[in-house]
Design a protein that fits this description.
283 residues, alpha/beta, 2 domains, five-stranded mixed β-sheet, 30% strand
Protein backbone atom coordinates (compact mmCIF):
# COMPACT_ATOMS: atom_id res chain seq x y z
CA UNK A 1 0.00 0.00 0.00
CA UNK A 2 2.82 2.41 0.85
CA UNK A 3 4.44 1.82 -2.56
CA UNK A 4 1.15 2.44 -4.34
CA UNK A 5 0.53 5.59 -2.28
CA UNK A 6 4.03 6.97 -2.98
CA UNK A 7 3.65 6.23 -6.69
CA UNK A 8 0.28 8.01 -6.79
CA UNK A 9 1.70 11.07 -5.02
CA UNK A 10 4.67 11.12 -7.39
CA UNK A 11 2.33 10.97 -10.40
CA UNK A 12 0.24 13.85 -9.03
CA UNK A 13 3.32 16.03 -8.48
CA UNK A 14 4.58 15.27 -11.99
CA UNK A 15 1.20 16.17 -13.48
CA UNK A 16 1.10 19.44 -11.57
CA UNK A 17 4.59 20.38 -12.76
CA UNK A 18 3.68 19.54 -16.35
CA UNK A 19 0.55 21.68 -16.14
CA UNK A 20 2.54 24.57 -14.68
CA UNK A 21 5.10 24.35 -17.48
CA UNK A 22 2.34 24.19 -20.09
CA UNK A 23 0.62 27.23 -18.58
CA UNK A 24 3.88 29.19 -18.54
CA UNK A 25 4.62 28.26 -22.14
CA UNK A 26 1.08 29.20 -23.16
CA UNK A 27 1.36 32.60 -21.45
CA UNK A 28 4.63 33.36 -23.20
CA UNK A 29 3.12 32.30 -26.49
CA UNK A 30 0.34 34.85 -26.23
CA UNK A 31 2.64 37.77 -27.06
CA UNK A 32 4.74 38.80 -30.02
CA UNK A 33 7.10 41.65 -30.87
CA UNK A 34 6.69 44.80 -32.96
CA UNK A 35 10.01 46.18 -34.24
CA UNK A 36 9.96 49.85 -35.27
CA UNK A 37 12.91 51.33 -37.14
CA UNK A 38 13.95 54.50 -38.94
CA UNK A 39 16.96 54.92 -41.23
CA UNK A 40 19.53 57.63 -40.45
CA UNK A 41 19.13 60.88 -42.42
CA UNK A 42 21.12 63.95 -41.38
CA UNK A 43 18.52 66.33 -42.81
CA UNK A 44 15.79 65.04 -40.47
CA UNK A 45 17.79 64.38 -37.29
CA UNK A 46 15.92 67.17 -35.51
CA UNK A 47 12.51 65.60 -36.20
CA UNK A 48 11.55 63.12 -33.45
CA UNK A 49 7.82 62.36 -33.74
CA UNK A 50 6.08 60.48 -30.94
CA UNK A 51 4.81 56.96 -31.67
CA UNK A 52 1.43 55.80 -30.36
CA UNK A 53 -0.02 52.28 -30.30
CA UNK A 54 -3.51 51.38 -29.11
CA UNK A 55 -3.99 54.98 -28.01
CA UNK A 56 -0.98 55.16 -25.65
CA UNK A 57 2.38 56.93 -25.95
CA UNK A 58 5.21 54.53 -26.86
CA UNK A 59 8.43 56.29 -27.85
CA UNK A 60 10.07 58.90 -30.06
CA UNK A 61 11.77 56.92 -32.83
CA UNK A 62 14.87 58.99 -33.57
CA UNK A 63 16.79 58.98 -36.83
CA UNK A 64 18.97 55.89 -37.17
CA UNK A 65 17.36 53.89 -34.35
CA UNK A 66 15.15 50.85 -33.80
CA UNK A 67 12.86 49.87 -30.94
CA UNK A 68 11.17 46.60 -29.89
CA UNK A 69 7.70 46.56 -28.36
CA UNK A 70 6.18 43.47 -26.73
CA UNK A 71 2.48 43.21 -27.61
CA UNK A 72 -0.37 40.72 -27.07
CA UNK A 73 -1.15 38.61 -30.11
CA UNK A 74 -3.86 40.07 -32.32
CA UNK A 75 -4.54 43.34 -34.15
CA UNK A 76 -3.07 46.66 -32.98
CA UNK A 77 -3.35 50.22 -34.26
CA UNK A 78 -0.33 52.55 -34.35
CA UNK A 79 0.28 56.08 -35.57
CA UNK A 80 3.04 58.71 -35.48
CA UNK A 81 3.05 62.35 -34.29
CA UNK A 82 -0.44 62.38 -32.76
CA UNK A 83 -3.59 60.32 -32.28
CA UNK A 84 -5.19 62.28 -35.13
CA UNK A 85 -2.69 61.08 -37.74
CA UNK A 86 -3.37 58.20 -40.19
CA UNK A 87 -3.30 54.78 -38.52
CA UNK A 88 -1.44 51.58 -39.39
CA UNK A 89 -3.04 48.22 -38.62
CA UNK A 90 -0.52 45.69 -37.29
CA UNK A 91 -1.34 42.00 -36.77
CA UNK A 92 0.88 40.43 -34.09
CA UNK A 93 1.28 36.64 -34.07
CA UNK A 94 2.17 34.80 -30.88
CA UNK A 95 5.90 34.19 -30.54
CA UNK A 96 6.74 36.07 -33.75
CA UNK A 97 8.03 39.51 -34.74
CA UNK A 98 6.48 42.00 -37.14
CA UNK A 99 8.34 44.99 -38.57
CA UNK A 100 7.24 48.59 -39.04
CA UNK A 101 9.21 51.21 -40.95
CA UNK A 102 8.90 54.88 -40.01
CA UNK A 103 9.53 57.21 -42.92
CA UNK A 104 9.65 61.00 -43.10
CA UNK A 105 7.74 62.75 -45.87
CA UNK A 106 9.80 65.41 -47.66
CA UNK A 107 8.65 69.01 -47.68
CA UNK A 108 8.78 72.21 -45.66
CA UNK A 109 6.63 70.69 -42.91
CA UNK A 110 7.80 67.18 -42.09
CA UNK A 111 5.39 64.36 -41.34
CA UNK A 112 6.07 60.80 -40.25
CA UNK A 113 4.51 57.81 -42.00
CA UNK A 114 4.32 54.16 -40.90
CA UNK A 115 4.35 51.08 -43.13
CA UNK A 116 4.44 47.34 -42.53
CA UNK A 117 7.63 45.78 -43.83
CA UNK A 118 9.58 42.51 -43.62
CA UNK A 119 12.39 41.09 -41.52
CA UNK A 120 14.67 41.04 -44.56
CA UNK A 121 14.15 44.77 -45.14
CA UNK A 122 14.88 45.48 -41.49
CA UNK A 123 18.06 43.37 -41.59
CA UNK A 124 19.33 45.41 -44.56
CA UNK A 125 19.17 48.55 -42.42
CA UNK A 126 20.07 47.10 -39.02
CA UNK A 127 23.83 47.53 -39.47
CA UNK A 128 23.24 51.32 -39.59
CA UNK A 129 20.82 51.41 -36.67
CA UNK A 130 21.28 51.79 -32.93
CA UNK A 131 18.86 50.71 -30.18
CA UNK A 132 16.65 53.53 -28.93
CA UNK A 133 17.85 54.72 -25.51
CA UNK A 134 14.65 56.20 -24.08
CA UNK A 135 10.97 55.30 -24.34
CA UNK A 136 7.65 55.64 -22.55
CA UNK A 137 6.77 51.94 -22.51
CA UNK A 138 8.08 48.74 -24.08
CA UNK A 139 5.03 46.52 -23.46
CA UNK A 140 1.42 46.82 -24.56
CA UNK A 141 -1.27 45.56 -22.22
CA UNK A 142 -4.08 43.25 -23.39
CA UNK A 143 -7.16 44.97 -24.78
CA UNK A 144 -9.37 46.51 -22.09
CA UNK A 145 -12.38 44.44 -23.24
CA UNK A 146 -10.61 41.24 -22.19
CA UNK A 147 -10.06 42.55 -18.65
CA UNK A 148 -13.55 43.89 -17.98
CA UNK A 149 -14.99 40.37 -17.74
CA UNK A 150 -12.75 39.55 -14.75
CA UNK A 151 -12.76 42.83 -12.81
CA UNK A 152 -15.51 45.25 -11.83
CA UNK A 153 -15.85 48.40 -13.83
CA UNK A 154 -13.92 51.38 -12.50
CA UNK A 155 -13.83 55.02 -13.44
CA UNK A 156 -10.53 55.57 -15.23
CA UNK A 157 -11.22 59.18 -16.10
CA UNK A 158 -8.13 61.29 -15.52
CA UNK A 159 -8.62 63.88 -12.79
CA UNK A 160 -8.76 67.44 -14.15
CA UNK A 161 -5.89 69.81 -13.50
CA UNK A 162 -6.54 71.99 -10.47
CA UNK A 163 -6.40 75.77 -10.81
CA UNK A 164 -7.34 78.69 -8.59
CA UNK A 165 -10.25 79.59 -10.81
CA UNK A 166 -12.11 76.28 -10.35
CA UNK A 167 -10.80 74.72 -7.12
CA UNK A 168 -11.29 77.49 -4.57
CA UNK A 169 -8.65 78.30 -1.96
CA UNK A 170 -6.10 75.44 -1.61
CA UNK A 171 -4.97 74.08 1.75
CA UNK A 172 -2.28 76.18 3.42
CA UNK A 173 0.18 73.27 3.41
CA UNK A 174 -0.09 72.71 -0.35
CA UNK A 175 2.71 74.05 -2.54
CA UNK A 176 1.42 76.28 -5.32
CA UNK A 177 3.07 75.85 -8.73
CA UNK A 178 2.72 78.14 -11.74
CA UNK A 179 3.23 76.49 -15.18
CA UNK A 180 4.25 78.31 -18.33
CA UNK A 181 6.94 78.63 -21.01
CA UNK A 182 10.35 80.08 -20.18
CA UNK A 183 10.14 83.12 -22.47
CA UNK A 184 6.69 84.05 -21.16
CA UNK A 185 7.91 83.63 -17.59
CA UNK A 186 10.93 85.88 -18.05
CA UNK A 187 9.07 88.57 -20.00
CA UNK A 188 6.21 88.65 -17.48
CA UNK A 189 8.46 89.59 -14.58
CA UNK A 190 8.52 86.24 -12.78
CA UNK A 191 6.95 86.07 -9.33
CA UNK A 192 6.32 89.84 -9.41
CA UNK A 193 4.34 89.78 -12.65
CA UNK A 194 3.61 93.00 -14.50
CA UNK A 195 0.04 93.55 -15.63
CA UNK A 196 0.93 94.10 -19.27
CA UNK A 197 2.75 90.85 -20.01
CA UNK A 198 1.58 88.51 -17.25
CA UNK A 199 1.89 84.88 -18.43
CA UNK A 200 -1.79 83.98 -18.13
CA UNK A 201 -2.02 81.47 -21.01
CA UNK A 202 -2.60 77.91 -19.66
CA UNK A 203 0.44 75.63 -19.99
CA UNK A 204 0.10 72.79 -22.49
CA UNK A 205 1.59 70.34 -19.96
CA UNK A 206 -0.77 71.18 -17.06
CA UNK A 207 -2.65 67.86 -17.15
CA UNK A 208 0.61 65.88 -17.33
CA UNK A 209 1.95 67.81 -14.35
CA UNK A 210 -1.21 67.21 -12.31
CA UNK A 211 -1.13 63.45 -13.00
CA UNK A 212 2.51 63.08 -11.96
CA UNK A 213 2.54 65.62 -9.12
CA UNK A 214 -0.90 65.35 -7.44
CA UNK A 215 0.35 66.81 -4.15
CA UNK A 216 1.05 70.19 -5.72
CA UNK A 217 -1.65 72.74 -6.53
CA UNK A 218 -1.47 74.32 -9.98
CA UNK A 219 -2.16 78.03 -9.76
CA UNK A 220 -2.93 80.41 -12.60
CA UNK A 221 -1.93 83.44 -10.51
CA UNK A 222 1.85 83.61 -10.62
CA UNK A 223 2.05 86.33 -7.94
CA UNK A 224 0.92 83.76 -5.36
CA UNK A 225 3.00 80.79 -6.58
CA UNK A 226 5.69 79.14 -4.46
CA UNK A 227 7.34 77.65 -7.55
CA UNK A 228 7.28 78.11 -11.31
CA UNK A 229 7.93 75.39 -13.88
CA UNK A 230 8.71 76.12 -17.53
CA UNK A 231 8.88 73.39 -20.17
CA UNK A 232 9.66 74.24 -23.79
CA UNK A 233 9.74 71.94 -26.80
CA UNK A 234 12.68 72.59 -29.07
CA UNK A 235 11.83 74.84 -32.02
CA UNK A 236 12.30 74.13 -35.71
CA UNK A 237 15.33 76.41 -36.15
CA UNK A 238 17.09 75.17 -33.03
CA UNK A 239 16.44 71.57 -34.02
CA UNK A 240 17.75 72.17 -37.53
CA UNK A 241 20.95 73.90 -36.41
CA UNK A 242 21.60 72.03 -33.17
CA UNK A 243 23.08 68.64 -32.39
CA UNK A 244 21.00 65.47 -32.99
CA UNK A 245 21.56 64.64 -29.31
CA UNK A 246 19.99 67.87 -28.07
CA UNK A 247 16.95 67.27 -25.81
CA UNK A 248 13.46 67.69 -27.24
CA UNK A 249 12.09 69.29 -24.06
CA UNK A 250 13.89 71.82 -21.88
CA UNK A 251 12.74 72.31 -18.30
CA UNK A 252 13.48 74.92 -15.63
CA UNK A 253 12.21 75.21 -12.04
CA UNK A 254 12.14 78.51 -10.15
CA UNK A 255 11.58 79.05 -6.41
CA UNK A 256 10.15 82.24 -4.93
CA UNK A 257 12.69 82.10 -2.09
CA UNK A 258 15.77 80.61 -3.82
CA UNK A 259 15.53 81.62 -7.49
CA UNK A 260 16.50 79.13 -10.20
CA UNK A 261 16.52 75.61 -8.73
CA UNK A 262 16.95 73.32 -11.71
CA UNK A 263 17.50 73.26 -15.47
CA UNK A 264 17.70 70.22 -17.70
CA UNK A 265 16.45 68.50 -20.81
CA UNK A 266 15.05 65.19 -21.99
CA UNK A 267 13.51 63.54 -25.03
CA UNK A 268 10.10 62.86 -23.47
CA UNK A 269 7.60 65.26 -21.93
CA UNK A 270 6.75 62.84 -19.11
CA UNK A 271 10.40 62.78 -18.02
CA UNK A 272 10.61 66.58 -18.13
CA UNK A 273 7.57 66.77 -15.84
CA UNK A 274 9.04 64.11 -13.54
CA UNK A 275 12.33 66.03 -13.27
CA UNK A 276 10.45 69.21 -12.40
CA UNK A 277 8.43 67.44 -9.67
CA UNK A 278 11.59 65.93 -8.21
CA UNK A 279 13.33 69.30 -8.17
CA UNK A 280 10.48 70.79 -6.15
CA UNK A 281 9.99 67.77 -3.92
CA UNK A 282 13.57 67.52 -2.66
CA UNK A 283 13.91 71.20 -1.74
Amino acid sequence: MNRISCTAVSNVITAVLLLACAASSNAQGQTGTIVFYREPHASTNYFKPMMFCDGVEIARIESGTYFQLTAPSGPHTCMAESLQRPTLEIDVLAGQSVYVHEGIQPGLKKHATLANTSESEFNKQKVRLKPLKEWSRDTLRPARAAIVEETPAVDNTDPPAISDSDAGTPPKAALRVFLTRRKAWLVSGGFTANQVTAATQPAYFANDFHKRCPNFVITDVQDTADYAVTIDEIGFVDALTGSPNDPTFRVAVYSRSAGLLYTGGTSLLKNAVKDACNAIGVK
